[in-house]
Amino acid sequence: MVITLIVSALLVVVAEFACPSDSYIHALSGAVFVPFSMVIGRHVCNLLVYAHMDRKPDEIAGQLSMSHGMVLSVSLYSYITVLLPLALVAIFVRTPFAIGGLCGAAMLMIVNYGWIRKNRSKKGTVPNISEGQGT
User: Fold this and answer.
1) Beta bridge partners of 66
2) Domains of the chain: which residue ranges?
3) Whole-model pTM?
């Protein structure tokens, strides 16, 4: 949340006081708002899935246990569903916002992949997330 506040404030300062070109502001806006939207969309997706399971518990059975690395990987894979169409938009439309958004989305995926690599190096120290465990 602090990073979101800092980046948003920085974007406002650059837009209002630095007087860069409109293209620069649009690219920077895309690089900030697209990854934020991807993360928020992922959280909303999780909330909707768990709300559905809560409303219709008969549609799921058994126990699911996922390691932290698996959770990170699933998150990375879900971002691909945004990255690929965004890449097509950036290629065909070529607006600064779309190109900046594509760069921001790619940076988010690179950071997520870094977390996966870091998790692999600590293998065995991260508990499984399952019923009654984790947060």
Assistant:
1) 129
2) 21-56+67-121
3) 0.69
How much is the CA Rg of the chain, to the nearest whole Å?
18
Token pair, residue 93, equals 């439309």
Within 10 A of 86 (CB to CB), how many other CB atoms are there?
20
Rounded distance between C-alpha atoms, residue 97 and residue 100, angstroms: 5
Q: Give residue 4's identity as a one-letter amino acid code.
A: T
pLDDT > 90 in the chain, percent: 13
Fill in the DSSP letter of residue 59. G
Residues with Cβ within 8 Å of 71's Cβ and at least 6 positions away in sequence, in order, are 129
Instruction: Identify whether the C-beta of residue 68 lies closer than 8 Å to the C-beta of residue 124.
Output: no
Which pLDDT tens digit goes with each residue over 84-115? Answer: 989 999 999 889 889 999 998 999 899 989 98
Question: Are residues 75 and 112 in contact, defined by beta-carbon separation less than 8 angstroms?
Answer: yes
SS3 (DSSP) at 85: helix
Alpha helices in the chain (DSSP H): 2-13, 22-55, 68-93, 96-121
Using CA atoms in the order 80, 14, 91, 109, what is the torsion angle rounded to 10 degrees? -20
